[in-house]
Amino acid sequence: MAELIDGKQLAKKINEQTKASVTVLKARGIAPKLVVIIVGDDEASEIYVRNKHRKAVQIGIISETKRLPENTTQAEILSLIDQYNQDETVHGIMVQSPLPEQIDEAAITRAILPAKDVDGFNPENVGKLYSDSDQNYPVSCTPKGIMTMLKAYQVKLAGANAVIVGRSNIVGRPMAALLLNASATVTVVHSHTKDMSAYTRDADILVVATGIANLIKGDAIKPGATVIDVGMNRDANGHLTGDVDFDSVQPVAGKITPVPGGVGPMTIATLMQQTVELAKWSE
Amino acid sequence: MAELIDGKQLAKKINEQTKASVTVLKARGIAPKLVVIIVGDDEASEIYVRNKHRKAVQIGIISETKRLPENTTQAEILSLIDQYNQDETVHGIMVQSPLPEQIDEAAITRAILPAKDVDGFNPENVGKLYSDSDQNYPVSCTPKGIMTMLKAYQVKLAGANAVIVGRSNIVGRPMAALLLNASATVTVVHSHTKDMSAYTRDADILVVATGIANLIKGDAIKPGATVIDVGMNRDANGHLTGDVDFDSVQPVAGKITPVPGGVGPMTIATLMQQTVELAKWSE
Does an H or E element contain A92, and which? Predict the structure, then answer.
């Protein structure tokens, strides 16, 4: 029976550390500030944004949520970003996905100053991650939070066989880079992969980020493997379920994240942590 | 017996196409220009730089080689790069490796304007590659040249199991990104990997870039696989040899690059091709 990786508990600990860092920074005259821009009225986005705001306030981060109407133009968002880029009191800027179709998301990503890019999506930061730069730079929060979990649960990374299911820019690709930088052997499998379970069955560390509920079953798991489930799918009854079939995988795996209470809380804790890091690096 | 992937012949073809593009651009008033900066007097570097110059001239690219003494300071190189960044007649800038130890290579890489970064090493370009951006951007020439070879020899990429041996910023990592963008399943193995041949033996496409002569033998190859050898090692007799043990691998593989005459000529052809692309994109 796999040990549970308690993301909720670990996130709490990280948040306490972040709160302590905020206190230290404030004593030095720096008040970390996060700006979240939300466009339109997507219901799920509104919940995410409210959760971020609440968490920031709890931690002592100044949080500003900028709500824009659905018909906002690209130029208007770019101009707003430019304003926050120039505002020295702002340390982290993020634009909540999804954006209305008239907006070029890649252009928005490029517009945020790399030093304030709290999501780590700006190509300059992505490039530093993939080049394993020794500079300070922000990294996509979900995979960064997963690295924090793996370290906290003392999962051996160097030489481990890590398999990532999914190749998104937000999770799969940066996860691959982080694990490669940590000297794991890294394989990225995805929708074009033939016989996916041939790969997953050899994985010491398996990270699943596909958005397909219960895709990975127990027979696709190496006994003792560490299984990280990034999925957040709602079934017909409104019940939250991961990309990993928890019931069949838990008896086989060595460590496993639950859904909810695994990756989710770590992502938001990492966002807060990274806001404070950006503030620190801005000194 | 594997089919030979004739990099020399293909490079010749690419060079002819590039030459034709130069003629077209010149008729539009754009004369593609490449600047190569070389610091100190490393003998191998001097040969590479001379080869690049000769090839550029053959193709009709204006080629300037800037030679700087071994004791050049970082500030001097940065100031020179800045001058070329601002010079509208220059389309591609590269700094030959290795650099003297007083120079921070990463800082040099960041200083070259992304739009003139003919080596594709600037983090912004690296980030676009890893995010599979739909914009135009330069890519590290060796892996880009390998993609050209794979396409010319009609190697199926989508769904293929691609294994890359080596995780350098110049070859292994960008190669992984290019193959992932082309929908291959991608594994990166390296010095920390346990039982490397367990991975290579499953590879439909195997790219080897380790700098270890004859590392990969025939028993580590899947029958019919496409094997790309990036190695350029000189043995005790001054004989050039790859990272792949050609004699034992050729009977097993489906397609294989020789050393010399495989990846090498494609890298320089790609550098020329990319200089002209940068000139075109600058319009």
Answer: strand A92-95
Q: Please answer yes or no on whether A127 and B132 come within 8 Å at the CB atom.
A: no
The answer to whether A180 contacts B167, with C-beta atoms less than 8 Å apart, is yes
| Per-residue buried b or exposed e for B184-214, using 16+ beta carbons within 10 Å of the residue's own CB | bbbbbbbebbeebeebbbbbbbbbbbbeebb
This complex has an ipTM of 0.95
How do the domains of chain B map onto residue ranges? Answer: 29-113, 141-264
d(CA A180, CA A198): 20
Q: Is A119 a catalytic residue?
A: yes
The one catalytic residue among A52, A55, A116, A222 = A52
b (16+ CB within 10 A) / e for B268-280: bbbbbbbbbbbbb
Task: Identify the H or E element spanning B248.
Answer: helix B246-249
What digits encode the pLDDT tens for the residues B194-231? 999 999 999 999 999 999 999 999 999 999 999 999 99
CATH 3.40.50.12280 fits B141-264, yes or no: no
Fold of A141-263: Rossmann fold (3.40.50)
A217 and A245 Cβ atoms separated by less than 8 Å = yes
Q: Tokens for A57, please give them.
A: 């306030």
Encoded tokens for A276: 């404070």
Tokens 């992304």 belong to B114
Is residue A238's pLDDT more than 90? no
SS3 of B171-229: CHHHHHHHHHHCCCEEEEECCCCCCHHHHHCCCCEEEECCCCCCCECHHHCCCCCEEEE
Question: What is the pLDDT, as a whole number, of residue B238?
Answer: 87
The CATH architecture that domain A29-113 belongs to is 3-Layer(aba) Sandwich (3.40)
**pLDDT by residue (tens digit) across B14-46?**
999 999 999 999 999 999 999 999 999 999 999
